[in-house]
Design a protein that fits this description.
Blueprint lengths: L1 H20 L9 H5 L18 E5 L7 E6 L4 E4 L3 H28 L3 H4 L4 H9 L2 H14 L1 H20 L7 H6 L8 H16 L4 H11 L1 H7 L49 E7 L10 E9 L1 E2 L4 E7 L2 E7 L8 E4 L2 E7 L5 E5 L9 E4 L2 E4 L1 E7 L7 E7 L22 E5 L7 H9 L4 H8 L7 E7 L4 E6 L14 E2 L19 E2 L5 E4 L20 H13 L5 H8 L5 H12 L8 H12 L10 H21 L12 H10 L17 H20 L8 H5 L1 E5 L8 E4 L15 E3 L2 E5 L5 E5 L17 H5 L4 E2 L13 E8 L2
Helix pairs in contact: 3-7, 3-9, 6-9, 10-11, 12-13, 18-20
Length: 812
C-alpha cells in the first residue's frame, strides 16, 4: 500500500507540475512552454549565418514570381510584376520581421488588449472604443474598399501577412507571443485601417477645449484673450505671411451667440504626448551644390523597440520607391523614387471638438438639438477579457459622434453629470492609402497635388521636391470650415450653428510652391499667418524649432546632404537663448551661496547648445520649468477646482521679458506680494538643491545626458528588451528633438538629380526579434547623428556590394 501511495503521489505531483508549467499564472507565462528547448524562446535566437543567401519560398496566392534582395541592414528590395504580388510580398516580409508589433498596435486601437493581458487593460479598451477608433476605422475601410486600387492593395497585403502567419509553428512564433502566451489571428484589411486611426489618435487626439472652457468661465474673455491669444507674438509660419493666395476663399460661417459650458474636472484620459512633432525641409536647386533640390525629414515620435518604422523598397511596373512604412500599413509613407521625394510632419490643427449635450431624461435615449429631441444610437461593445467572462459596454452616439465622458465623472458645481459628444475628423471615411499609393508613383508636382486630394487624417505637412527643380509644402488633410475660435472651447450641442458647417476645399489648404527664399520647411508651427482666410486652430507647436531651421536654411548656400544632416542634429536651444539672459539679470544683487554663484557663472558661459556633455541645459531646463510652475500654478494648477492649463511658452516668455509688474506674478496663496526677481531666486535655489541631491556638487555628473536620460523602451514595456540611458544631446523644443522618451524616429535626407541618392537611419533595426542582431543594430549610428546610405536598386539584377542575399517567392 505504501509503495502504491508513493507512486500515486509522484504521478499527482508530476501532473500538477506539468499543468503549472504549461498554464499562465497571473502575469507569468507558462514556463514549461516558454523554456522548452523545442518550442520556447530559445528558438527565437538568430545567427547571421542562419539567414539564407539564396532560397525559394513557395507562397500560395502569388500570381507571378517575385524577386527579393536583402542588403546588409536586412532591408528587403522587392521586385514584382504586378500590384497584387508587390503588396502581397510587402505584407509577407513585414510580418516576417514585425508580426507581433503589427498585431499588438491594432489590438490597442481596436480596444482589445484585455484579450491578451486580462482585466488590467479593461479601461484602456473601453477608452479607445468610446473614442471611436474602431468606428472611424470601419468608415475609412468602407471608402478604401470601394476603390478598386486600394482594395487590391489592402487585400493583397493582408494575404501576404496571412501567408506568413500560416507558416508559423509553436516553435517559430515571435518571442512576445510566447511570453504573453497567445497566438496571432488572421490579418484583415480592417487592421490596416485601425493602424491609421491609431496614428490619428497619437497625432491629433490631444485637446484643450474643456480646460479653456473652465478658464473662460473662471476668469472671463479678457483674460483668455490676453493669456491664450489666437496667434503668438513670436511665430515663423510654414507658409510665410504675405504669400499670395491662388484661390477665392469661401464665406466663413457666422459666429453664433456666446455659449458658456459648465465647469468640470472631466479630463481626457490617455492623452497623446504633447511633445510629439517632426521636422521637414527642402532646399531648391539654387541653394544646393548640385543644382538639384535636397529634402530632409525626421518625424518625432515615441522611441520604441521594435522601431515604429520599417524600411523597404517596392518595385513593379509603374513604381520603384524606397522609404519607410509603419508595420501593418501597405505602401511607403515617407520616401523617394527616381524623380521625387516627400516627407511629413504633424499639422496639429483643431480637428477634434467637444459638444455639451442636453438629455431628455436619465435614460439617455434622446438629446436636444435644433429645436427637437433626437434619438441616441446605442452600440453594445463586447469586450473579451482573458481568464474572465466577457464584459459589455454600451457606447452612445449622436450626430456629432460618440459620447465619451459618461463614467468616472467628477462634475464641479453641478449635481448633473456632464455629457460630451465628440466630433473628430478621424471618424470620417477617407482614403489615405490611395494618397500614399499615388505618392509612391509620382513624377512631378501635379502628381503630388493629385495624391494629396484623397488624404484625410491625421493632417500632415507634406513636403515635396522633384528632379524638375520644384519644391513645395502643403499642410494637408480634411479641415472643417469653422467660425473663428470654433472648438477653442466646449461647444453647444443643442445649437446647430455650433455644428461643423462644411469643409475647407483641399485646394485651399495652406500651401506654397517654389518660394523666393529658396526653401520650404515645417516644424509643427502655425500652418499660415493671420492673413490666411480660414481658422485652423489657435495653438500649434512652439516657434523654436521652425525658427531655428529657417535661420539656418536662409543662410545656407551650396548645400549638400551633410548640410541637411547637420541641421537635423542641431542642438541650439532657442528658448534658452531668448530668456536665460533675462533670468540671469533678475538675479543681480540677490544673495547667492557660493554653490549658486558657481552655477550662475557656468550658465553665463554656456553657449545655449544642448550637447550631451553640457551642464547648462541641465540647470536651465529645471530652473525655467520651476519658475514657470511658480508663476502659473496658483492660478491654473490642479488645486484651483477645475481642470485647467498654463498659458503657452510664448505668452509666458512675453511676461518674463516685458511685464515686470504683471498681477499674475504674485502667488495668491501667500500673504506677501511676490516679484519676478523673487521667483527667479526661489526657482534657482530649488533647481540647485534638486540637482545637488541627485548628482552631488556641480561636476560633469550634471551633464545633460544624465539628466535627460533618453530611453528606448520595448513597445509593451517588457523589462530588459529596450535600450536605456542613451548618451545623446537634443531635447524638447530643439531641432534635434531627442527627449526622455521621444525623438527623431526616422532621419532621411534625399539628394535629387539624374541619379537620386538618399541616406537615412532609425533608432532600432529591421527585425522585431530581440534575438536578432538586426533588432537594434542601427541605434549607434542614430545616436551619433550619422546616416546610412540607402541602397536604391534600379533592377532586380543590379550589382551592389552591400546586397548579397537574393530570394525568390513563387506560388508553386
Amino acid at each position: 500500500m505504501f509503495q502504491w501511495m508513493k507512486a500515486f503521489t509522484a504521478v499527482l505531483i508530476s501532473l500538477l507540475l506539468t499543468w503549472v508549467l504549461n498554464a499562465k499564472q497571473g502575469d507569468v507565462p507558462p514556463m514549461g512552454k516558454f523554456l522548452s528547448p523545442f518550442r520556447g524562446f530559445w528558438q527565437n535566437a538568430e545567427r547571421e549565418q542562419d539567414f539564407a543567401a539564396q532560397q525559394t519560398l513557395t507562397l500560395p496566392g502569388l500570381q507571378q514570381p517575385v524577386q527579393v534582395r536583402f542588403d546588409d541592414k536586412r532591408v528587403p528590395h522587392v521586385f514584382a510584376q504586378n500590384d497584387h504580388d508587390l503588396y502581397f510580398a510587402q505584407g509577407y516580409l513585414t510580418a516576417r520581421d514585425r508580426l507581433w508589433q503589427m498585431e499588438f498596435q491594432t489590438h490597442v486601437a481596436a480596444g482589445r488588449l484585455s484579450e491578451i493581458v486580462g482585466e488590467k487593460r479593461l479601461e484602456t479598451d473601453r477608452f479607445f472604443r468610446r473614442m471611436g477608433l474602431p468606428y472611424g476605422a470601419q468608415r475609412s475601410l468602407a471608402v478604401m474598399m470601394a476603390n478598386p486600387t486600394t482594395r487590391t492593395v489592402l487585400e493583397s497585403y493582408s494575404s501576404g501577412v496571412n501567408a506568413y502567419i500560416h507558416s508559423l509553428t509553436p516553435a517559430t512564433l515571435p518571442f512576445e507571443y510566447k511570453l504573453l502566451n497567445y497566438a496571432p489571428e488572421p490579418w484583415q484589411p480592417l487592421k490596416c485601417a485601425l493602424l491609421l486611426k491609431f496614428m490619428a489618435w497619437d497625432l491629433s487626439g490631444r485637446t484643450d477645449d474643456l480646460r479653456l472652457s473652465n478658464i473662460l468661465n473662471k476668469y472671463g474673455p479678457g483674460v483668455v484673450k490676453d493669456l491664450f491669444p489666437d496667434y503668438p507674438l513670436r511665430e515663423d509660419p510654414i507658409v510665410p505671411v504675405g504669400a499670395p493666395l491662388d484661390f477665392k476663399p469661401l464665406p466663413v460661417p457666422p459666429t453664433p451667440k456666446e455659449f458658456s459650458a459648465e465647469l468640470s474636472n472631466n479630463t481626457q484620459r490617455n492623452e497623446p504626448d504633447a511633445e510629439l512633432g517632426s521636422n521637414n525641409f527642402a532646399v531648391s536647386g539654387s541653394k544646393s551644390a548640385t543644382g538639384f533640390p535636397l529634402l530632409a525629414n525626421d518625424p518625432h515620435l515615441q522611441l520604441n523597440l521594435p522601431s515604429i518604422w520599417y524600411q523597404i523598397q517596392l518595385s513593379a511596373p509603374g513604381v520603384n520607391v524606397y522609404g519607410v512604412t509603419i508595420p501593418g500599413a501597405p505602401t511607403v509613407i515617407i520616401g523617394f523614387n527616381t524623380d521625387v521625394a516627400w516627407g511629413v510632419t504633424n499639422v496639429g490643427a483643431d480637428v477634434l471638438d467637444w459638444y455639451q449635450l442636453k438629455f431628455k431624461d436619465a435614460t439617455q435615449r434622446e438629446y436636444w438639438h435644433d429645436g427637437r429631441w433626437k434619438p441616441i444610437r446605442r452600440v453594445v461593445e463586447r469586450i473579451k477579457v482573458r481568464g474572465q467572462a466577457d464584459r459589455l459596454d454600451t457606447v452612445l452616439y449622436t450626430h456629432h459622434g460618440p459620447i465619451v465622458y459618461d463614467h468616472d465623472e467628477k462634475p464641479f458645481l453641478s449635481q448633473t453629470p456632464i455629457r460630451h459628444a465628440m466630433r473628430w475628423t478621424a471618424h470620417d471615411g477617407a482614403n489615405e492609402v490611395l494618397a500614399f499609393y499615388r505618392l509612391n508613383r509620382a513624377h512631378s508636382y501635379p502628381d503630388y497635388t493629385a495624391a494629396l486630394s484623397t488624404y484625410g487624417s491625421p493632417a500632415q505637412n507634406f513636403i515635396f521636391a522633384d528632379a524638375g527643380n520644384d519644391i513645395a509644402i502643403w499642410p494637408n488633410g480634411r479641415f472643417p470650415l469653422k467660425w473663428r475660435d470654433q472648438g477653442k472651447f466646449i461647444l453647444d450641442g443643442t445649437n446647430p450653428a455650433h455644428d461643423w458647417q462644411g469643409w475647407i476645399p483641399q485646394q485651399q489648404n495652406p500651401h506654397v510652391k517654389n518660394p523666393a527664399r529658396g526653401f520650404v520647411s515645417s516644424a509643427n508651427q502655425f500652418s499660415a499667418g493671420p492673413d490666411y482666410p480660414y481658422y485652423l486652430g489657435w495653438e500649434f507647436g512652439s516657434w523654436d524649432r521652425g525658427h531655428r531651421i529657417n535661420q539656418r536654411l536662409a543662410r545656407m548656400t551650396n548645400a549638400t546632404v551633410d548640410s541637411l544632416r547637420l541641421l537635423q542634429n542641431d542642438n541650439l536651444g532657442i528658448n534658452a537663448q531668448l530668456v536665460l539672459p533675462r533670468m540671469l539679470a533678475l538675479l543681480r544683487g540677490q544673495p547667492l551661496s557660493p554653490a549658486q554663484q558657481q552655477i550662475v557663472q557656468a550658465l553665463s558661459r554656456w553657449n545655449y547648445f544642448y550637447n550631451a556633455d553640457a551642464v547648462g541645459p541641465t540647470v536651465f531646463e529645471l530652473w525655467y520649468k520651476t519658475m514657470v510652475k511658480q508663476l502659473w500654478d496658483d492660478d491654473f494648477g490642479a488645486q484651483v477646482g477645475a481642470e485647467m492649463r498654463y498659458p503657452s511658452r510664448d505668452r509666458t516668455n512675453t511676461l518674463l521679458l516685458q511685464e515686470d509688474h504683471s498681477p499674475w506674478i504674485d502667488d495668491r496663496r501667500t500673504p506677501a506680494v511676490e516679484t519676478l526677481p523673487q521667483l527667479a531666486l526661489e526657482s534657482l535655489r530649488f533647481a540647485a538643491d534638486s540637482l545637488t541631491r541627485k548628482f552631488g556638487p556641480m561636476s560633469p555628473k550634471w551633464a545633460w545626458t544624465h539628466q535627460k536620460s533618453t530611453d528606448i523602451l520595448h513597445l509593451a514595456q517588457l523589462p530588459g528588451f529596450g535600450r536605456m540611458d542613451i548618451v545623446c544631446g537634443g531635447g524638447a523644443g530643439i531641432v534635434n528633438a531627442t527627449s526622455e522618451r521621444n525623438g527623431p524616429s526616422w532621419r532621411m535626407v534625399v539628394a535629387l538629380g539624374p541619379q537620386v541618392h538618399a541616406f537615412g537611419v532609425f533608432p532600432g533595426g529591421q527585425s522585431g526579434n530581440p534575438g536578432s542582431a538586426h533588432y537594434d543594430d542601427l541605434i549607434e549610428t542614430w545616436r551619433l547623428g550619422q546616416l546610412n546610405e540607402l541602397i536604391f536598386l534600379r533592377s532586380a539584377t543590379e550589382a551592389n556590394p552591400r546586397v548579397s542575399a537574393a530570394w525568390s517567392l513563387t506560388s508553386k
